[in-house]
Design brief:
8 strands; about 290 residues; Rossmann fold
Amino acid sequence: MSLLKQGWQEGYVHTNGINLHYVTQGEGRLMLMLHGFPEFWYSWRHQIPEFAQDYKVVAIDLRGYNDSDKPKDVEAYKMSELTKDIEGVIEGLGYQSCILVGHDWGGAIAWSFAYAHPEMVDKLIVLNLPHPAKFAQGLHSPQQLLKSWYMFFFQLPLLPELIIQSNDYELISFAFTNMAVDKSAFSQEDLEAYKDAAAKRGALTAMLNYYRNIFDNSFLTNNQQQWKMLDLPTLMIWGENDTALGKELTYGTEEYVSNFQIKYIPNCSHWVQQERPELVNQYMREFLS
């Protein structure tokens, strides 16, 4: 069954030696959307038609996910490779810059890309992923370390794959329904779509390889020099009931971002743009106008 709605098109862009799959709708300035774990382009299903009225919205499958290429080497999932992918996608689509939107891992990539190529980001929108310097600081607190237990579990070889695959990828749907405040935000069809994407050959190991690079990644260094002041209009949207990332990780972000706004959404989980799409879309619209 196709997940594409009327007016949505799909395509591939060749970048950094691989092919990345995307879904797109609309014309105009580029709005590029980057999903998180364990998701794929489908996470933006409530945003694509909304913003296609004014922009060319492109929601990609990150490398290793769903219908994008899945390099086998663990090293292929380092942040430096992920940011090169985004540079190539923007240029491959015929643009010089974009409005960059990222959630979870997509947010981590968006932060890193904005620092590496500020000239290619007109505006930055990050959902439920703290500024890298704040995340690095947070990992020194027992409170956040406890919430981030899964990052350490994912370092193990093979065992995480075996456990996630068991019972028809039950843990994938559990990740959404267990964390969500409003369980009705995810239909059975939605959960099956996420399980099907994770079950594609090579996808699960590729998805976990993001975590297997996390402690080598420049992303999680608390180097004041690296994270200088970012001079880009930046909006952070944060579901307050995120069980994986504490709200306190957002405090003090303005020390690193000069033009910064934050919108907290109460009674909402980590899956903010899927659980409260109307409010997320409204905050994005207000920021973009």
